[in-house]
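Inputs:
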Amino acid sequence: MAEPRILIVDDEPDMVDNCARILRRAGHRCLTATDPHRALALLESEHPDLLLTDLKMPEIDGLALLHRARELDPALPVVVITAFATIESAVAAIKEGAFDYLPKNFSVDQLTLVVERALRQRRLALENRNLREQLQTTLGLDNIIGRSPAMAQVFELLKKAARSEANILVLGESGTGKELIARAVHANSPRAAQAFVPVDCASLPENLLESELFGHEKGAFTGAVRTKPGLMETASGGTLFLDEIGDLPVSLQVKLLRSLQERQIRRVGGTALIDVDVRVVSATNRDLRESVAKGQFREELYYRVNVIEIRLPPLRERAGDVRLLAQAFLKRYGQARVLAYDDAAIAALEAYAWPGNVRELQNVVERACALAEGDLVTVRDLPDHVRVGARRADTPAAASTPGEAPLTGTTDLGLKEAKERWMAVLEASYLRQLLERHQGNISAAAKAAGIDRKTFHRLIGKHHIRG
Ligand SMILES: Nc1ncnc2c1ncn2[C@@H]1O[C@H](COP(=O)(O)OP(=O)(O)OP(=O)(O)O)[C@@H](O)[C@H]1O
Ligand SMILES: [Mg+2]
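Outputs:
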């Protein structure tokens, strides 16, 4: 904050002039506005360090201005000026985040004092913010959760790679966070202020994808009623994110390669060459090297888009991150109603293999939050396969005894599976009682059950009952 600037807003010009005169005399730089619309424009373009505003103005009142100002810059202190008669509204403004208020008949000292205090507050807020930002860039990005050594390596590489202009290929199984990483690369790059333009190479048929990417001239094909610039042009100066690049049709691979080499494109149906300056971040869950070997992906394009490769580990290889992610998603989906997991639920989540990676975990937590009855997520709120998968990992014997499975928690099964589960429990219990009544005599028990001996043997084997 080299030379702090104060924006003074009041619909009475005298008031604005008075304040500005006093504050300039005290050595401050001031911007002024008597029209709140103009004030908004100044807030957006000038980024002042303090807003001093009247509360009662026509059209946009001081409170609305306060809201907008704090949206634009949460560290901006706002001082509201108010007539004695409307002291309640001044209090309301404080509750909305104003730093302080001044009565309309303020003295020179009162004004300079509150301004000094507000600017001191501003300085502290900015220092804090800088610290936080430094911390964020050293930790990777705030919204990418992970402290496992595997992810620490990813963050390390991401930070270095983002600073460069090199094209980046993000590899990883489905749901590992490839798009999140691509966005983080852009956000940490010198191009961050320009556009991040995602293109899903798998979602469109070839000719549509071509005109999406390269644009088209009016009349280039039926339906091309007007000229449309392509996404490569939109991304110029910024980052083009080619998602599922492994699915890009070969003809477009060739065209893309040429435009990346020449840094120019030609719209579909056009003749003019248009300069484009894009950094390409791509993602795929395919083995691109293998696609190259099979002739499905152009080798030159592979090397062009894969200058730096960021490999995202599957969730099962990120020690400790499941718990961390589960907590973060609980905060997001629990909506202050569901607050925690019980021990068994956390254990089940940690034991499960997560073939769908972070996306699967996110879905499971969202669902569990919807199902949880109290403020705790219990194993009953987890899908059956997660629970079973977990049990299998914990106690191998337990999972192979479906007859022993508890009846609780079957409500998230379909009726058919639930019935099967109940029937298995009933069957096991029936067989056990029958055997007890016949002192373990299988022939007698089978006879009483009305089935042959061999079938009885098979059943008690299935339920792990000792004859
Ligand atoms: N480390 C993480 N921290 C927080 N959220 C994450 C993390 N990784 C992934 N997510 C979330 O999981 C979901 C899936 O992530 P994303 O779409 O980036 O995966 P992807 O690898 O692109 O998947 P796909 O291959 O299926 O397209 C998103 O909602 C994303 O926000
Ligand atoms: Mg994706």
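Remarks. The longest helix spans residues 108-138. Residues 178-179, 243 surround magnesium ion (ligand 2) (CB under 6 Å).
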